Amino acid sequence: MGKVFEQIDDKLREFIAGQRMFFVASAPLTGDGHVNLSPKGLDAFRVLGPTTVAYLDLAGSGVETIAHLRENGRITLLFCAFEGPPKILRLYGEGRPVFPGDDGWDDLISLFPTLPGTRSVIVVECTRIADSCGFGIPLYDFRGDRTQLTAYADRKGEEGILDYMRTRNRTSLDGLDGLAGIAAYEEPS
Hints:
The chain is of the alpha+beta class. The protein has a single domain (4-137, 144-181), classed as Pnp Oxidase, Chain A (Roll), CATH 2.30.110. It has 4 helices and 8 strands; from the N terminus they run βαββββαββαβα. A hairpin with a 7-residue loop joins strand 6 (74-80) and strand 7.
C-alpha cells in the first residue's frame, strides 16, 4: 500500500539520489491538448528543501514542459527503482522554469554540473509526495549515461544551440509559448 509523505525526508532523498532516471509529466489546460511525458537522466536532479526540488532542463526537440508550466504550473515527477527493492515515488506539484538572467538563476545553476545546451532550471514546489509498490517494474542494470545530447550541443556550439532554441523551442505542439517572449532566447537587437 502506498504512503503519502508531508515532506521529502532523508530516506526519500536517498531513494531519489539513487535513481539514474526520472520522468516528468505535464499537460495543457485544454482537454484536447497533448499530454507530455519525458524521461530525464544525467546528473540533473536536486532536492532543495523538504518540499522543493529542481532539475536541469536541457535543449531538446520539444519545449512542452516549459510551455505547460508557463500556462498552468502543473507537473508530476516520477522515480522508479530499476535496481534494489521495488518502489515508485511521485512528486506532484506546481512548477516554474527559471531562465538565464532570471532572479535566482545564478544560485540554482550553481547546484548542477555545467552541461552544454542548458535551457532552464525547473523548480517544483511539491503539493503531494506519495510512493507505491513498484512490484510490476522490471529490474535493469545501469550501464552508463548516454552522451549524444550533450555531444550534439557541444557540436552546435553556444550560438548554434541558442539559434536552435530560438527557432525550434518557441512554442509547444499546441501553440503555447515555450521560449517565446523569454529575454534570454530572443534575437539580439
